[in-house]
Amino acid sequence: MIDLQLTDKTHDEERQGEALVIDAPEVRNGRKLYIESYGCQMNFADSEIVASILKDQGFETTGDYHEADVVFINTCSIRENAEQRVRNRLSQFGAEKRRNPKLVVGVLGCMAERLKSKFLEEEKLVDMVVGPDAYRDLPQLINQVEDGHKAINVLLSREETYADISPVRLNGNGITAFISIMRGCDNMCSFCVVPFTRGRERSRDPHSILAEAQDLFDKGYKEVTLLGQNVDSYKWKGPDAEENAEIEVNFAQLLEKVALISSDLRIRFSTSHPKDITDEVLYAIAKYDNICNYIHLPVQSGSSRVLELMNRTYTREWYINRIDAIRRIIPGCAISSDIIAGFCTETEEEHQETLTMMDYVGYDFAFTFSYSERPGTLAARKLEDDVPEEVKKRRLAEILLKQQETSLFRLQQFVGKTVRILVEGTSKKSDKDLCGRNDQNAMVVFPATTGVKAGQYVNVHIDRCTSATLLGTIAVEVPEIV
Ligand code: SAH
Ligand code: SF4
Ligand code: F3S
């Protein structure tokens, strides 16, 4: 068994909720913020919190870093190549800084948290390093930089959820939005850096989640995605809205509450964890038409031995049991996965078990990765990264090929049928086409028709498909699959 204690230095440094007393920086209007985000949806959602905090300081956002006063890069540490991309981008910002020495360059997010002050030593052009729980401190840190100092705050918190901050929606389509319902992760999967960069798991007050979802709906949004590293362990305890009783809310109950806002508001969520997803959650999805029939349930590996080394705390049999429950309770539910190829000591037979798991589930979609050792994780400390690079590559290619075939097979099931979709806007490839997703999260592209616009639900007859997209035409008949 792997040691489960959260004893990493990051956690020893936690702020544990004490108030930080800081002078409120003066608001100066007209300054411009450029913010670029990498990594998971939670990081993108965090950038919207950051934009909101800086908006209160008079900053407006710009899409062009050449005209910015402050450039932030919200970073990801999940794999080595994610960090490399950030470093490459930073060298481009460096060129801009040489042209405009007053430009403030800040590194936010998971790389900031992982590398802490080392970042300031390694990357000379960086002025500030700010971890994911320290964004309320940004105005003060910017002041510090403008006074000629380097600035850093990488304290993690046990309480921070930014519940009271109303995010500024960045690069949005005005139709779909993310809502963070929790932060951090307590799971300690042995390959994963997230518990170190995001700290302890904490759930956000459901009243603030519901208020945010209602506000989005009132503004014309039609779909919200509830975000957490492990949404199934959402748990909140506290006073109810009238404050006359203590209530406890789990994820299934939260889903129901959000679904009841309006049947016209679609609900999605990510990520579900195989060890925690309950039948209660599945029944909630089945009960409400507006909770989408789509579950992202990362398997990581099909081998029980590898899963144990990964500290995922479930076996192949347990995972299959959860898949069977989904198929039984929500027929037609789409399922996607994350899969890692070439984890420490993975044998050829164990890799085959991943492939047979993929056959069993028939994933609609999968994110596939080659194992990348991350400093400080349990695997880096206790296991040898002994699968040669070319073997990882070959196994990843086999996984990818199988997924492409399965994705195509899944999408072909919709051809000839009529599906209901939420129009998100014009298609990336042609402005003569519109696009949107069906309930199962498949992208549907169809020719624009007069009167049909973003935010509407329409029925589309599917004529054909590729392995990634359904292609169709607006239909008059009612959907056979909703
Ligand atoms: N909380 C989610 C995953 C977040 S990270 C969950 O538990 O499923 C997203 C994905 O990145 C993981 O599911 C995993 O497949 C992949 N990943 C994480 N660390 C990795 C590493 N060190 N090497 C390769 N892939 C990794
Ligand atoms: Fe990482 Fe595991 Fe937490 Fe997901 S559940 S964020 S993989 S530690
Ligand atoms: Fe990356 Fe941090 Fe998300 S490491 S995947 S940005 S939680």
Sequence-ordered SSE layout with sheet pairings:
Blueprint: H1 9-12, E1 31-37, H2 41-55, E2 59-61, E3 70-75, H3 80-99, E4 104-109, H4 110-115, H5 117-122, E5 128-130, H6 138-146, E6 151-153, E7 176-180, E8 182-183, H7 194-198, E9 202-203, H8 206-218, E10 223-227, E11 235-239, E12 246-250, H9 251-259, E13 266-270, H10 279-287, E14 294-296, H11 304-309, H12 316-329, E15 334-341, H13 348-361, E16 365-370, H14 378-382, H15 389-412, E17 418-426, E18 433-438, E19 443-447, E20 457-465, E21 469-474
Parallel strand pairs: 1-2, 1-3, 3-4, 4-5, 5-6, 7-10, 10-13, 14-15, 15-16, 19-21
Antiparallel strand pairs: 8-9, 11-12, 17-18, 17-20, 18-19, 20-21
Helix pairs in contact: 9-10, 13-15
Bound molecules: S-adenosyl-L-homocysteine, iron/sulfur cluster and FE3-S4 cluster (F3S).
Residues 78-79, 191-192, 194, 229-230, 271, 273, 298, 300, 338, 340, 369, 371-372, 374 line the site of S-adenosyl-L-homocysteine.
How does this model look, in words?
With 482 residues, this protein is of the alpha/beta class. It has 3 domains: 18-153, Methylthiotransferase, N-terminal domain (Rossmann fold, 3-Layer(aba) Sandwich); 176-412, tm_1862 like domain (pyruvate-formate lyase- activating enzyme), CATH 3.80.30.20; 418-474, Nucleic acid-binding proteins (OB fold (Dihydrolipoamide Acetyltransferase, E2P), Beta Barrel). It is built from 15 helices and 21 strands. Helix 6 (138-146) links the parallel strand 5 (128-130) and strand 6 (151-153). The longest helix has 24 residues, at 389-412. The two termini are 45 Å apart. Mean pLDDT is 93; it is low at 1-22. FE3-S4 cluster binds next to helix 2 and helix 7.
